[in-house]
Specification:
Blueprint: E1 3-5, H1 6-13, H2 17-26, E2 32-33, E3 41-44, H3 45-54, H4 61-66, H5 79-82, H6 84-114, H7 117-120, H8 141-149, E4 162-165, E5 171-175, E6 179-180, H9 188-196, E7 199-203, E8 208-214, E9 221-228, E10 231-236, H10 245-256
Parallel strand pairs: 4-7
Antiparallel strand pairs: 1-3, 2-3, 4-5, 5-6, 7-8, 8-9, 9-10
Amino acid sequence: MTFVSVADACRCLGIDAKTLHHWLADAQLPLQGYPRDGRKKGVSQEQLQMLARLHHRHLASAFQESLPAIPADRLPLPPALLALPDALCTLQAQIAALQRQVADLTSLLQRQARQPESLLSPAWQPPPARRPPTLTSPAPRAHSTATTSAKAPPKPAHVIPRVEYDQQGHYVVICPKRGVLPFEPDTSEWFAWVAEQSSFRFVGKQGHFSAHHEWLIPHGAWRAHRQIRNHSYNLRLAPNQELTIAVLEQAAAALQAHLA
């Protein structure tokens, strides 16, 4: 039996050692140990010719003739030492599988760390803390009336801008303070206005939703949010410079489909 070292096999096939190991693994051919030195690894001449045929490689005849023939039965090795190459190959495969699992887990943790908290639980808010009741002496009736009348008025509800499809078949942008703005969507003024907003309400031909600006995402990405039957649905939109009416209508149709 003729043994060929890993370096000689790579030169003969014209590949590197890493590619040789991949070819051997694909063909389910283990590395062979040298009879006189179990620490050295190589392949047999038959394995080398098989790899050359599988991958359409030409072995030089001069190189084949110069390969040293090492008799395999000169110095027999113990079975435990002969089984060592297979054990090493199995260990290497297990290490590679563990490395892939660690890489996948690291990538998953990084993606979760980049997501804002609003995407994780948009519909849940902690209940207000309740204060324990305190025992106080009853106040006069006139003082109670004065305290009630002195309470601060409730804060007005926060109204966000609105982008809607009107009855005339046009998309208009409505500001809570300035009314209808003098520009149309998909224009330079529209994209400049979008970059300055944190949220707005979209009412289109296909449906409606609330759009929120994700400031933590590079280039200012947006997401669509809608509450349907006590369930929150979120949909990733586009960055500021790509947030067109077509993107908004497509998201409205996708969220509207959950009502079916």
